[in-house]
Amino acid sequence: MARLLLLLFPADSPRAKWNLIASALFALGLAVFSWRFLATPYRDLSWEWGWTHNVHLVFHEAGHAIFMMIGAPRTLVVFMGSGLQVLFPLILSGAFYLKNRDAYGAAVCLWWAGHAALDVAPYIADARALELPLLGGGTGREIEGHDWEYLLNHWGAAHLDIHIGSQVALAGRVTMCAALLWGLATLAYEAWFYPHLADEHDA
After folding, report:
1. Does 178 fall in a domain?
2. Are 147 and 171 spatial neighbours (Cβ–Cβ below 8 Å)?
3. I need a labelling partner for 21 at 20 to 30 A (CA). Which of 60, 65, 136, 174 fits?
4. Pick from 118, 96, 116: nearest CA to 107
5. Helix residue spans in 99-160 (DSSP H)
6. Range of the domain at 143
């Protein structure tokens, strides 16, 4: 049990009380903010993402640009648009966990990765329909396709677009929920168990 707790909550000491309160308020706000993304059918979200989509879009376009500059094959260049928007917060999550021993910071970045995956899901499901609006204006039909139309056709999986999109959306939502639970559990552990462990150590 002690090994499991150390794995889930690796910090050597709790955060300051003000930090604990601010982190708890942020986590609760994030939970409320998440509700719309968890309750709305994922294919409807693509029409009303709001500012969060623009955040993901920065890393999406950077993924294309970086792999294009290093001369990667076209398939990898296309894939790493969606790939980097999910991979970047996962890397941050790993850094918080492994380097800073901060499970709460890791959980918030893990939530971000789940949300990024949910952002990708409607575009995967749109590979055949090509109805969603794209960055340059117009739909995939009007500009000769988009990333996932190319990828799924290249892999011979275009007929699975809706199935794959729904599974990616499910994985994103499960990740978001798990991350929120992990973050709140981390704060609860630091608030209630660390003081008792410290008292036992002093005794």
Report:
1. yes
2. no
3. 174
4. 96
5. 103-125, 147-154
6. 51-202
Tell me the C-alpha distance between 197 and 61, whole Å: 47
Residue 58 forms part of a structural domain = yes
pTM of the predicted protein model: 0.89
**144 located within any domain:** yes
Q: Which run of H or E residues covers position 176?
A: helix 161-192
Q: What is the mean pLDDT of the chain?
A: 88
What is the average pLDDT across 124-144? 73
Q: What is the pLDDT of residues 85-126, one digit of tens each?
A: 999 999 999 999 999 999 999 999 999 999 999 999 999 999
Report pLDDT for 130: 85
Residue 154 lies in a domain: yes
Structure tokens at 72: 């990667």
End-to-end C-alpha distance for the chain, whole angstroms: 22
| Domains of the chain: total | 1
